[in-house]
UniProtKB/TrEMBL annotation:
Keyword Transferase: yes
Pfam family, one: Methyltransf_25
GO aspect biological process, one term: methylation
Keywords: Methyltransferase, Transferase
Name the record gives this protein: Class I SAM-dependent methyltransferase
Classification via InterPro entries: Methyltransf_25 (IPR041698), SAM-dependent_MTases_sf (IPR029063)
One Gene Ontology term of the molecular function aspect: methyltransferase activity
Amino acid sequence: MAGEDEALVDHGLPDDALLAEQMAYYQARAPEYDRVYAEREDLRNLLAAADELPISGDVLELACGTGQWTAALAERARSVTALDAAAETLDIACARVTSPNVLFTQADVFTWHPSRRYDTVFFAFWLSHVPPSRLPAFWNTVREALAPQGKAIFIDEGPSEAWREEFLAPKSASAVVRQLDDGSRHRVVKVFHDPETLTGDLATLGWSADVRLVGGSFMVGVAEPVGERG
């Protein structure tokens, strides 16, 4: 294990290499992914938060995973286009959500560009997996995908959840090590955004955002591009 841990030390791993490991982790984790929702009541309660969010019209869901949030979106939306890069998680999502207004598409959010615009762009537990250096490009993609007066809505862990993670050594502010049932260990991007700091960062990128903590553990944000109200 010592040799394996040494191999996982953060030696300035480039974003592309780290994201490739992150992808491999989620492909391998697909059969285990839903367990956390079964184990944590606060996550199950959080799913009900979709009813209080301004989700409407045609919705784009980025990094939909196994579809835990897709079904809730489908109940509120005219249509849902749900993207994920991992075929393994999409297979589970397709089996879980059979609503006729949902279209699942395999695509890498970091290279994908929208061919149309949506009233709502939604992503849950994804923003924390975006490397800091790629935040501007990511939010540009979200902007490209939004129709006039559209909103970006996101949910993620708040800073108080950082204790659950094993950060890389030497300690990294943006990468952690996670272990799967088979004992394999994987480096994953994980950034715990402070709501106030994130609000300021988004303002710098041209967004007006309301980001708040919910239940102390989770962060919910609603953002609109400044000056693009149609």
